[in-house]
Design brief:
The protein is α+β, with helices and mostly antiparallel strands. Helix content is 36%, strand content 17%. It has 7 helices and 8 strands. The protein has an 8-stranded mixed sheet with strand order 1-8-7-4-5-6-2-3, with helices on one face. A hairpin with a 4-residue loop joins β2 and β3. The chain is elongated and about 75 Å long. It starts with a helix and ends in a 9-residue tail after the last helix.
Length: 240
């Protein structure tokens, strides 16, 4: 036995090494929080903020223009017209063009409207309203194509030929008075025919000018229209 052991001098150390425990290196997996803290998480957050920024940029013009007129009250800006709150959308009311073509009031959507109402006989007040309506639109200069003149005729009588020249370029629609009264409303103590009504391109009646407006009042109404057109310039374009 002793001779056998002496013939293998390296056997002792080899057995000793075999009895030693193995050393293992354990690599831990990253936690979800650590992943978010890395570059991939940062890219995700940056992408989300960019998406929010793009959405805000798209909505900002419309929000800003309506904030100007519907949140900042007229007392602070000396607005001449009276804001309508809540707004009243164009009704699905049948109408007839001057040539007898059937249509609806909702077909007027897509353009700023300056509306006046009168019966077909068109007395002195009506003629003055149509004159001021035409002058107001012309005074807007290059922005005038963004505003349509609309005369809503409240009865079935024929429109006198004497008005033909003044009505060039205007939209004339015949709508029963009872149906008009369900949409437009005059100030207390006045009639529909005494006012001008402003309708936005979305089809909402949103402003009413004072009854029996004179020349000085027309100048103040022009300033209101200028402000409206400027505030909506980024999202409203001429024509429907």
């Amino acid at each position: 036995m002793s001779g056998s052991n002496s013939s293998h001098p390296g056997a002792g150390p080899a057995v000793a090494n075999a009895d030693e425990p193995l050393g293992l290196t354990v690599h831990s997996m990253p936690s979800p929080k650590q992943a978010l803290d890395g570059s991939e998480g940062r890219r995700t957050m940056v992408g989300r903020w960019k998406m929010i920024a793009v959405m805000l940029c798209c909505a900002a013009p419309v929000i800003a223009s309506y904030f100007t007129y519907y949140v900042i009250r007229p007392e602070g800006r000396r607005v001449y017209g009276e804001l309508i709150d809540p707004q009243r959308p164009l009704p699905a009311t049948s109408a007839t063009a001057r040539d007898g073509t059937p249509t609806t009031l909702r077909a007027l959507k897509g353009q700023w409207l300056l509306v006046t109402v009168a019966d077909a006989a068109c007395d002195a007040l009506c003629e003055r309203q149509l004159y001021l309506q035409r002058q107001l639109r012309e005074s807007l200069g290059r922005e005038k194509d963004r505003l349509d003149r609309v005369w809503l005729v409240s009865d079935d009588a024929p429109v006198p030929p004497r008005l033909d020249n003044g009505l060039r370029g205007a939209t004339v629609l015949r709508v029963p008075a009872a149906e008009l009264a369900q949409w437009l409303a005059p100030a207390a103590g006045h009639t529909l025919a005494e006012h001008f009504y402003v309708v936005d391109p979305l089809g909402n009646w949103m402003m009413r000018f004072p009854a029996r407006m004179d020349t000085e009042g027309a100048g103040r109404a022009k300033r209101d229209l200028d402000r409206l057109l400027r505030a909506s310039a980024s999202w409203d374009e001429p024509g429907r």
